[in-house]
Amino acid sequence: VWRNCLDIIKDNVSLQSFKTWFEPIVPIRLKDSVLTIQVPSHFFYEWLEEHYIDLLKKVIKKEIGAEAKLEYSIIMDRNSNSKKAPYTVNLPTNDKKSLSNSPVSMPLNTEENHIKNPFIIPGLKKVSVDSNLNPTYSFDNFVEGDCNRLARSAGFAVANKPGGTAFNPLLIYGGVGLGKTHLAHAIGIGIKNQFPNKTVLYVSAEMFTRQFVDSIKNNTTNDFVNFYKLMDVLIVDDVQFFAGKEKTQDAFFYIFNHLHQTGKQIVLTSDKPPVEMKGVEQRLLSRFKWGLSADVQAPGLETRIAILQKKIYGNGLDLPEDVLEYLAYSINTNIREMEGALTSLIAQATLNKKSINIELAKKMIDKFVKNTAREISMDYIHKIVCDYFNLPIELLKSKTRKREVVQARQIAMFFAKKMTKWSLASIGAQCGGKDHATVLHACRTVNNLAETDKQFRGYLDDLEKKLAVN
Ligand code: ADP
Ligand code: MG
């Protein structure tokens, strides 16, 4: 029967189309007027439905009879395809588990389409797309702080109501290692947890670009675009990567419009705000700004400590508090670096079977951050001095003229002058708004006392050791 069908089809389509779209089809069975054909991929099926359905209908009715029906069976090629073409949709036919993991409804399956399309397509009820989400980057593992509050809560709102908030697209921007990728995944994970039927895809702009370029090479741009049009939620990380790539931007523009118009959620991240994205088309930039742009900034000390704590407890580890604090004080550039230092610290300790104490931590961390031109921070000096004299740190930054506070403040200034390249004015500003003369006076006072007072000298030596970088 299929041979006869093919003969008719051959006369009705170009040779090229016939070879591409009909030769690969394998007839599987004909039972009760239902013809089952096997097609190599989901796109293949979609393509047939879109371009050749009328022809197929006619031919099959002619060969089998008026009540003829067509059924597709799609080869499952999860493993072979996931590497080559990450945008391939897989249809898990036997795999119940992955079916329930991330099933999505095909548009074909809606009531409307059923009426329009007399063909039944069992087995096509669900397709699953690998969302590419990293489960460790969840909201639970994300520490909220002033630095990321807006971005986080907007992300949370989107996760609870994808496509249903004013934040579409949601653009999260900010410097390197400040949690953009983490948040992007968290949104995807949140949506998947609450709406398992939604098709969610996380993709880096780089990966998107690579897929697009491949699709041009392989003549499968239609597949590429159609795949992205299937998404309920599309998360694109680091869109600044699109800069200067016009063709990719065009494809993304088209996909963006389609998704946005159909109420699908779009989440974007970027290392800079839209106004600073050079090399990205204006029409795309203006769309980036349609929803909400929220920035993430470098976290303050408390947030840094909280992040380290979360990471440590999450891994079932424990660290002395002073080590943790030293880490958080020393590395304030970005979170990735701080985590890197923590990881190598733990690795060192495990390898050498040493327990992690502050000495080991200092050695490690200082080695770790040597290249990033680390400078001791005023916060850290304050902290060490206050701990030593048992004073609350707020007092040091206040205007109190209590003797012991004044002295501690002077000592902190003295060490700041000694251990950093900061100007007197800058040190004063960091010590409760004192002027440069006050700082100069402090340094002289401490020097004088050190020469005359042996006990005081001892304090300074202790403190210097505690503050020492090596
Ligand atoms: P970005 O994408 O902005 O460069 P990432 O999202 O990759 O940064 O974050 C770098 C690392 O820091 C990741 O391991 C991430 O889990 C961690 N991180 C960043 N922000 C937070 C946060 N607020 N809470 C917990 N971990 C965080
Ligand atoms: Mg990132």
From TrEMBL:
<keyword id="KW-0067">ATP-binding</keyword>
<dbReference type="InterPro" id="IPR020591">
    <property type="entry name" value="Chromosome_initiator_DnaA-like"/>
</dbReference>
<protein>
    <recommendedName>
        <fullName>Chromosomal replication initiator protein DnaA</fullName>
    </recommendedName>
</protein>
<dbReference type="InterPro" id="IPR038454">
    <property type="entry name" value="DnaA_N_sf"/>
</dbReference>
<comment type="similarity">
    <text>Belongs to the DnaA family.</text>
</comment>
<dbReference type="GO" id="GO:0003688">
    <property type="term" value="F:DNA replication origin binding"/>
</dbReference>
<dbReference type="GO" id="GO:0008289">
    <property type="term" value="F:lipid binding"/>
</dbReference>
<feature type="region of interest" description="Domain IV, binds dsDNA">
    <location>
        <begin position="350"/>
        <end position="470"/>
    </location>
</feature>
<dbReference type="GO" id="GO:0006270">
    <property type="term" value="P:DNA replication initiation"/>
</dbReference>
<keyword id="KW-0446">Lipid-binding</keyword>
<dbReference type="InterPro" id="IPR024633">
    <property type="entry name" value="DnaA_N_dom"/>
</dbReference>
<dbReference type="Pfam" id="PF00308">
    <property type="entry name" value="Bac_DnaA"/>
</dbReference>
<feature type="binding site">
    <location>
        <position position="180"/>
    </location>
    <ligand>
        <name>ATP</name>
    </ligand>
</feature>
<dbReference type="InterPro" id="IPR013317">
    <property type="entry name" value="DnaA_dom"/>
</dbReference>
<dbReference type="GO" id="GO:0005524">
    <property type="term" value="F:ATP binding"/>
</dbReference>
<dbReference type="GO" id="GO:0005737">
    <property type="term" value="C:cytoplasm"/>
</dbReference>
<feature type="region of interest" description="Domain I, interacts with DnaA modulators">
    <location>
        <begin position="1"/>
        <end position="81"/>
    </location>
</feature>
<dbReference type="InterPro" id="IPR001957">
    <property type="entry name" value="Chromosome_initiator_DnaA"/>
</dbReference>
<feature type="domain" description="Chromosomal replication initiator DnaA C-terminal">
    <location>
        <begin position="377"/>
        <end position="446"/>
    </location>
</feature>
<dbReference type="InterPro" id="IPR003593">
    <property type="entry name" value="AAA+_ATPase"/>
</dbReference>
<keyword id="KW-0963">Cytoplasm</keyword>
<feature type="binding site">
    <location>
        <position position="179"/>
    </location>
    <ligand>
        <name>ATP</name>
    </ligand>
</feature>
<comment type="subunit">
    <text>Oligomerizes as a right-handed, spiral filament on DNA at oriC.</text>
</comment>
<dbReference type="InterPro" id="IPR027417">
    <property type="entry name" value="P-loop_NTPase"/>
</dbReference>
<keyword id="KW-0235">DNA replication</keyword>
<feature type="domain" description="AAA+ ATPase">
    <location>
        <begin position="166"/>
        <end position="302"/>
    </location>
</feature>
<feature type="binding site">
    <location>
        <position position="181"/>
    </location>
    <ligand>
        <name>ATP</name>
    </ligand>
</feature>
<dbReference type="Pfam" id="PF11638">
    <property type="entry name" value="DnaA_N"/>
</dbReference>
<dbReference type="Pfam" id="PF08299">
    <property type="entry name" value="Bac_DnaA_C"/>
</dbReference>
<keyword id="KW-0238">DNA-binding</keyword>
<dbReference type="GO" id="GO:0006275">
    <property type="term" value="P:regulation of DNA replication"/>
</dbReference>
<feature type="binding site">
    <location>
        <position position="177"/>
    </location>
    <ligand>
        <name>ATP</name>
    </ligand>
</feature>
<dbReference type="GO" id="GO:0005886">
    <property type="term" value="C:plasma membrane"/>
</dbReference>
<keyword id="KW-0547">Nucleotide-binding</keyword>
<dbReference type="InterPro" id="IPR013159">
    <property type="entry name" value="DnaA_C"/>
</dbReference>
<dbReference type="InterPro" id="IPR010921">
    <property type="entry name" value="Trp_repressor/repl_initiator"/>
</dbReference>
<comment type="function">
    <text>Plays an essential role in the initiation and regulation of chromosomal replication. ATP-DnaA binds to the origin of replication (oriC) to initiate formation of the DNA replication initiation complex once per cell cycle. Binds the DnaA box (a 9 base pair repeat at the origin) and separates the double-stranded (ds)DNA. Forms a right-handed helical filament on oriC DNA; dsDNA binds to the exterior of the filament while single-stranded (ss)DNA is stabiized in the filament's interior.</text>
</comment>
